[in-house]
Amino acid sequence: MRIKIVAIIAIILVSQAVYSITDTWGPTGHRATGKIAEKHLSRRAKKKIAKLLQGESLAFVSTYGDEIKSDRNYRKYYSWHYVNMPLDGNYETSEKNPEGDLVTGVNFCINVLKDDKASVEDKRFHLKMLVHLIGDLHQPLHIGRKEDKGGNTIQVQWHGRGSNLHRVWDGDMIDQWGMSYIELANNAKDLSKHQIKAIQNGTLLDWLKESHELAKKVYVSAEIGEKLRYQYSYVHFPIVRDQLQKGGLRLAKLLNEIFD
Fold this sequence. Notes:
Elements (H helix, E strand, L loop, with lengths): L1 H20 L5 H12 L4 H10 L5 H4 L2 H4 L34 H13 L5 H18 L17 E4 L2 E4 H13 L3 H6 L6 H8 L3 H16 L7 E2 L1 H30 L1
């Protein structure tokens, strides 16, 4: 009996470790970003994407990158979801993951989608991955420190239950808000054309740097073991909403460039 209990505990601990390491924007966040992107696609891009995805929406496929993690055949894509770098460092000079990272993953997807010789199946797969990865790029702790796995090992309390800093930013705040992804998308800020263009400006590395700067603020926003509740959401959820919207607008920019 004692052996069984120990085995069960071990399984629970392993499953928790795997979950914490692979966290990304939760489904609601990814779908909100996909929905926002759809609103800013050109007519031509929207038509080509609909054909490639066989009618599925960007919101629907936005969680695909997480769904395939349970399949060992897709294990090589795991490192595409994040970039580990010191808070005082930058991507250009930081040590790179030999298995690839978020930047190499996004660029690979773009190259496949622009390749006239790529198969429809390859383009469909890498479009789904691109939608997901641009969402990940805008979760600040996906550009976090290696030593704490992007905040996954920083344990905190969220409304009386155990969580970690990464998970709070991935989904806890979004879930606590209680809106569907459609409600989140429909209630994004009303921006002028000039404001949208300003957000869409820059390169992939510019966007990554922006998220990295936010990560620095997130790391000092809570202490280990801190009990986070409504005040934390009040201060930080506006940043989450901004990041979801920026992710959608920038995803639309990339897709318009690829498919228009």
